[in-house]
Amino acid sequence: MPSERSQLLGRSGKKKWAQKIKPLRVSLAALLLLLVVGSVSINYFQGGIRRESKKKNVIFFVTDGMGPASLSLTRSFRQFRDSLDIDDILNLDKRLIGSSRTRSSNSLITDSAAGATAFSCALKSYNGAIGVNPTKDPCGTLLEAAKLNGLLTGLVVTTRITDATPAAFSSHVDYRFQEDLIAEQQLGGYPLGRMVDLMIGGGRTHFYTAADSEYGSAGSRADGRNLIKEAKKNGWSYVGNIHEFHKLQQGANVSLPLLALLADYDIPFDIDRDEAIYPSLEEEAMTAVNALSKATENSDKGFFLMIEGSRIDHAGHQNDAAAQVREVLAFDKAFEAVRKFAEQSDDETILIVTSDHETGGLVTAKQLGKDYPEYVWYPQALLNASHSGEYLSKKVLSYTGENKEEFIETSIFERDLGIVDYKRDDVKVLAELTSLGDIADKLNLMVSDRARVGWTTHGHSAVDVNIYAYANRQSVWHQVLDNLQGNHENIEIGQFMADYLDFNLTKVTELVKKTKHSPADHKIELLDNIAHHSGLLNDL
C-alpha cells in the first residue's frame, strides 16, 4: 500500500523524452500527415469509416450532486487505492469540455427538481418543480418530444424511478413529493399516454399499497391502486428482482415496454451493495442501452436515454466521503461502458454528462486545529471504511445485545471503519443516539475528520458543475463543442439536445397543458409522501 507521501510525490507514466531522443528523419509528406491527424481531438472523438445512418441516439447522464471536488477526491482515492500513476485519471476527466451554472428561478441554489426540469424542459423553474414552469403550468420535456418524434425512450437510476430527476423527464407535478402521481403518469396516466419505453431503478413502494404483500414489503400508495398489476395488463414487462433482471441478458432478451423496479426505495450505496441482490449502475445502463439499440436496429429512428448516478447526491447530503468516492467510481465505470458502446455503434450517438448541482460543499482539505494549516488529506481513511454511515447507523440501532459499547468499538469502529484511535466519548455518544440520521452523521464525521475531508452543508451549494461529452462522429463533435464548450446556464444543455434532435418543445407543451398536476387534487397522497420522506436520511 503506497503512503500518502509517495502519492503526493507521484510518478508520471509518461516516458521522459530526454532519455528517448533519437535522430528523426521525417519526410514532408509524413509531417503533413501528422499535422492532419493531430488536428482531430482523439481524446473525445475516435474517427473511422462508418456507414451513414440517419438515426440519432442521445444518452444524457446526470451525476446528481457531483461537483468538481468530487472528481478530485475520487481521482486521488483511486490512484492511492490502486497504486496508480498520478496521470492515470478518471474516464470522465478525459471528456471534460465545460461547466454549468445551476441556479433555479427562485433561488441561487437549486434543488434536484428544478435542476432536472432545466434539462428536460430547457427552462428555469422553482425549487420543487417537476416538469412545470414557474407559474406551475406543465412544460413539454425532451423525453416526451423524443417519443412523439418516433424515438424510443428510457430512464435508468439508482434511486427511486419516481425521484426528482427521472420524474422531471417523464411527468408533470407541482411538487416533487407527489410520487404516487408521478408513478401513474410515468406508466401513461396523463394526456399523452405512455411516453417511456424502459424504466430501471428503485422505488417500488410508490407503485402499490400497504395492502399488497406479494412484492416482499408493504407499499406506500395512498389511493389503493396496484400500478404494477395495471402495467402488466397494459403490456409492460415487469422485473422485480436480480434473478429476473439477469434473465434480460444485458438487454438481449428485453420485451418493451420494460418496468424494472429493483428495490423498495433506493438501491443501496455501491459501498454497501450486495451484488447478489442489486445490479450495478453499469449493469443497469448497459441493459438499457443494448435493449434500446436492439429495438431500433431496423428503424431510422434512434433513442433518448437518461442515466443518473443518483446516489452521489445522497452521499453528499449525508457528508459521507467514503460512500461518495465509491458512487463516483461506479458512475465513471458505467459511463465508460456506455461510451465504448457508442464508439462501436454505426449510429450517430452523443453522450452528454453534467450535474444538476453540487451537494455538501465538499472540499478535499479540513483544518482540525488552530495550528498553522497542514496541507494534507488522507485517502487511507476512506479506504478503511467498508460501509456507509447509512448502513452502519441501521446496524447500530438494530443491535439488541447486552454490551452495546463493546459492539460499537469492535464491530463498528475497528472492523467496519478501520478506526482505532477513537475516544471513550465517541463510544458513549454513539451508544446513546437514537436517530438513524444522528448516528450516520457522527460516523461520517469521524471518517471525514481522519481523511481531512471537509463539508460546509448537508444541502446543496451554488458551485458550478462540470460538463462532459463524447460523440462518435467528427462533425457532431464539433457541433457539441460549438454549443457546450465553456461556461453555460443549465437550460442551454437541454436546449442543445432539443436543437440537435430538431425538437420543438413548445409544441409538446401545448399537448401536456391539460395534465392534472396540482397537489389539491391529491391531498392525501401528498401528505402521506411528505410524512414518508421526513423520516428518511436522504435529503433533496
Automatic annotation (TrEMBL):
GO biological process: organophosphate metabolic process; phosphate-containing compound metabolic process
Compartments, record wording: Membrane
Catalytic residues, chain numbering: S112
Cofactor binding annotation: Binds 1 Mg(2+) ion.
Membrane topology: Single-pass membrane protein
Binding site for Mg(2+): D64, D163, T165, E308
Protein name: Alkaline phosphatase
